[in-house]
Amino acid sequence: MKYPIDFKDSFEDTLRFWIERYIRYKLGSLSNRQVKDPEKIASVMKKLTLGTSNIKELSQLAKDARNAGLIGVNTYYKPLEKLYFFLKKYAPASMKEIDEELIIDFLTYSTSGLSDATKKNYRIAMINFFKFVEKQNEERYIFDIELKNWAGLRGRAGTKLPEFMKEEEVSRFLKAIDEYPFREDAASRNRALIKIIVYTGIRVSEAINLKMRDIIEENGMYLLKIVGKGNKSRVVMLKSNHIKEDLHKWLKRRKCKNDLLFCNKKGTPLTQAYISKTVEKILLSAGIRKEKNGAHMLRHTFATLLYNKSKDLVLVQEALGHASLDTARIYTHFDREKMSKAANLMDDLG
Description:
mainly alpha; hpI Integrase, Chain A; 2 domains; 15 helices; elongated
């Protein structure tokens, strides 16, 4: 039986649902030589079919299956359990916002200090899980999670370039931000926040958690102190004229708790799901359609344009707050200037 890609009301419930279906599928393919309690295995499989109410219950079922003799279940479940908690913090609005760069970020973050063999197991678990979801979702949505050559040790020459906007599309998108009919109380906030992401490439989670003390204006620039993954800090800059008018309008309305720069009506942080849905609406209003239309695509766009203009991979790494050059390297694969040199190679020999 096939299901909608976003089967549940919330992203967390949807991801847990797909993990349940996948683990239920894997239990039927694991070696049963060491099974000492077949009835327990049958009970676990039935409960997985009916569905769990939370991740703790799902983890217990995986543990029960292992204790009953299907010892290989942890090879598949443990990486997915970690992925669940990683994506819970990222809080996508849809399964469709998951892409290869996000999974690479997860693997880089979660496999540090693990053995090479375990890293390979994590990679295989990710590839197999997303291929399973591709086959089982009724929309036939494709993730393209291949992770070629990734083992936490080597470069990723085979990875695909993430979805991004071309310069002309960015111009249309920026114009659409200013023209989009937001509610009056949310207009200046949404415009300032989304423009910050566009002009700096910071993560949505980093943008919605900015504090008033994290932004300083000097010499026609805004300096933003960003607290990224692993509580690592970095500074990004953007020209003040890009957001000054919207930001000042928002600050006159702002009533946020805990020194937040941006917040909702209750004074609490905005959600990543809300920002992604807002970005998608603006993109559609501008006639821009990508396979992955969420807010994370803005980060890919910034990184791609930055590399194409600077050809400086270290700059891309530092600007985006990547822990490794390997993560930033994905933006070098379609370097048109280098590819044109290859295309012109035989011209003088014609």
